[in-house]
Amino acid sequence: MLRKDYIEKLVVDATTQYILIPNNFNEIAKRCIAIYKEEQQVEDKTNSFEQQFAAVKYKIDNVMKAIEAGIMTDTTKSRLTQLENDKQNIVKEMKTSRSIIICRNYPKNISYIC
User: Fold this and answer.
1) Residue 97, number of CB atoms within 10 A of its CB
2) Less Cβ around it within 10 Å: N or C end of the chain?
3) Using CA atoms, how far apart are residues 61 and 65, in angstroms rounded to an integer?
4) Which of 91, 88, 64, 89 has the alpha carbon at shortest distance from 76?
């Protein structure tokens, strides 16, 4: 049976010997920056979808207020339908964006669980 401290030492030694060498620093830094930029883009998209969702919801609320005030025309109905469709599309995009985040964070999430 291998002891935990022996395995840990092997891992640290291998990491130091094969990975943390000056020749690899630039590559490690480039990969870290690339991962950060990807995550930032996904986060920016998610924030954009949330802002779009809030704007559409606000517009729907305004159309509903107009309907409650007795202003019901074909244009009002058409506009409400369009806004509802926009809302559904934004929700789909938000779900897709969140799925990407979950997939990218899968190894990180697994490490928390284990």
Assistant:
1) 19
2) N
3) 6
4) 64
DSSP 62: H
**Nearest alpha-carbon partner for 102 in 28, 30, 46, 34:** 46
Q: CB within 8 A of 50, min separation 6: which ones? A: 94
Q: For residues 49 and 96, what is the distance between their CA atoms, to the nearest angstrom?
A: 11
Report the number of secondary-structure helices (H) and strands (E) in the chain. 4, 0
Residue 88 identity: Q
Q: Which of 94, 93, 87, 88 is nearest to 59 (CA)?
A: 87
Q: What is the pLDDT of residues 52-76, one digit of tens each?
A: 999 999 999 999 999 999 988 999 9
Q: Determine the longest span between alpha carbons in the chain, in angstroms.
A: 80
User: Could you give the CA distance from residue 89 to residue 97 in angstroms, rounded to a whole number?
Assistant: 12
pTM confidence score: 0.60
